[in-house]
Amino acid sequence: MTEKESQSEPRLVLLCGPPGAGKTTTARRLAEELPAVRLCPDEWMADLDIDLHDEEFREKLEARFKKLGYELLGLGQSVILEFGFWARSERDEIREAGKALDAVVELQYLNVPHEELWRRIEARNSSEMWNDAPITLKQLVEWLTLFEEPTAQERALFDNTRN
C-alpha cells in the first residue's frame, strides 16, 4: 500500500512511550497533518479535575476512548490514541481491532533516553496541568521497569511505524 492510498483510509495511530516521551506534542502535530481526532486521557482527566494518578478512572476512560475510537474509524475518521501503550498485549489488542475495522494501523514509538524523560517531566511538573499530580523520579524509574519496548518483530506487524 502506498502512502497516498493509506491516506484515503481511516488511520488508527497508537502513541507508545513512557511519560515525558513527547506523546502529546506528537499527537497534536499528527492530528493537524492527517487530520485525526486525538484522544488524550491526561488532558480529559485534568479538564474534569480528576487526579491524574487515579488508575481506576484512567482505565474506564481509556476503555470508553477505545469504543469511541472504533466508532469514529467505522465512520471513516482517523483517530490518535494517546495512551502510552506500555504493554505488548494492549498494543496487539488495539492493532487487531483497528485492522478488523479496515483501518491503517500505525505505531508511533517515541524512544527517548531516560535522562531526557526525567528532564521533560521535571519541566512538566511545574505546568498547571501537572502541579497537583507531579511525577517523581521514583515513579518514573518504577514505570520504566513496567514498560515493554516494542521489538522490531512487533513493529513489523503494524502498517506503518515511526521511531
Percent helix, as a range, is 40-55%
Q: What is the string of helix and strand elements?
A: HEHEHHEHEHHHE
Quickly name the level 1 CATH class. Answer: Alpha Beta
The CATH topology is given as Rossmann fold
User: Would you tell me the overall average pLDDT?
Assistant: 91
- What is the architecture at the second tier of CATH? 3-Layer(aba) Sandwich
> Runs with pLDDT <50, length 5+?
1-6
Describe the sheet with the most strands.
5 strands, parallel
Alpha-carbon distance between the termini?
20 Å
Tell me the number of structural domains. Answer: 1
What do we call the CATH homologous superfamily?
P-loop containing nucleotide triphosphate hydrolases
How many helices does DSSP assign? 8
Q: How do the helices and strands line up, and which of them pair or pack?
A:
Elements lengths: L2 H6 L2 E6 L6 H11 L3 E3 L1 H7 L7 H20 L4 E6 L3 H13 L3 E6 L4 H12 L11 H10 L5 H4 L4 E3 L1
Parallel strand pairs: 1-3, 1-4, 2-3, 4-5
